[in-house]
């Protein structure tokens, strides 16, 4: 029988207390938020604790929330316990002024490429990453294309004027 979300939450709360927040279970997947500076402590606990054994990183990505002051960037970790076939999601938030997050490459080799991709598109700096550089975009880019800093359409286009559409 797979380890229950209540048991996972109980073990995490016992270890980290009130520092883990925003507990929810969308579609049955346990999801929580950890402080930015504790991401490695929580990941190590999830990996090393025999009862939990979340030893496979399914995904790591970033999200940009430009209107959340002090928490503009979110790093989302999806972890999988392959033996029990249980998945969980952990989120951490960081400010745009200093988007630094500790790298998880020492624990999950899969994090290497995923952190590079997240850096490439969002500009989140993974401190301690062995080779943090652009992986899909050209090195000369001086911006991060997935940030919500630009209008969705070119505001100067004349073929999009309302009069063209009978408005």
Topology of this protein?
Elements lengths: L4 H12 L4 E4 L5 E4 L5 H10 L7 E9 L8 E9 L4 E9 L5 E3 L8 H12 L2 E3 L40
Parallel strand pairs: 2-5, 6-7
Antiparallel strand pairs: 1-2, 3-4, 4-5
Describe this structure in words.
The protein is an alpha/beta fold and about 170 residues long. The protein has one domain (about 5-150): Beta Polymerase, domain 2, CATH 3.30.460.80. The protein has helices at about 5-15, 40-50, 110-120, and strands at about 20-25, 30-35, 55-65, 75-80, 85-95, 100, 125. It has a 5-stranded mixed sheet with strand order 1-2-5-4-3. A hairpin with a 4-residue loop joins β4 and β5 (about 85-95). The protein is globular.
Annotation, overall tally of beta strands: 7
Overall radius of gyration: 19 Å
Q: Averaging pLDDT over every residue, what do you get?
A: 93
Helical segment count: 3
CATH class: Alpha Beta
- Any idea of the CATH topology? Beta Polymerase, domain 2
Alpha-carbon distance between the two ends: 61 Å
Extract low-pLDDT stretches: none
Helix amount, in percent?
Answer: 10-25%
Please state roughly what percent of the residues sit in beta strands, choosing from under 5%, 5-15%, 15-25%, 25-35%, 35-45% or over 45%.
15-25%
Gross morphology is globular
Report the major sheet: 5 strands, mixed
Please give the domain count: 1
């Amino acid at each position: 029988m797979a380890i229950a979300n209540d048991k996972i939450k109980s073990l995490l709360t016992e270890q980290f207390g009130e520092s883990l927040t925003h507990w929810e279970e969308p579609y049955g997947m346990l999801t929580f938020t950890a402080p930015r500076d504790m991401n490695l402590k929580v990941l190590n606990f999830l990996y090393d604790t025999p009862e939990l054994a979340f030893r496979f990183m399914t995904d790591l990505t970033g999200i940009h929330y430009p209107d959340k002051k002090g928490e503009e960037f979110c790093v989302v970790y999806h972890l999988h316990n392959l033996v029990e076939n249980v998945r969980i999601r952990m989120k951490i938030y960081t400010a745009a002024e200093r988007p630094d997050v500790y790298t998880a490459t020492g624990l999950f080799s899969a994090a290497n490429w995923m952190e590079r991709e997240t850096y490439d598109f969002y500009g989140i700096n993974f401190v301690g990453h062995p080779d943090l550089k652009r992986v899909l975009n050209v090195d000369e880019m001086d911006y991060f294309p997935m940030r919500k800093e630009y209008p969705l359409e070119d505001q100067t286009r004349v073929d999009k004027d309302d009069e063209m559409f009978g408005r």
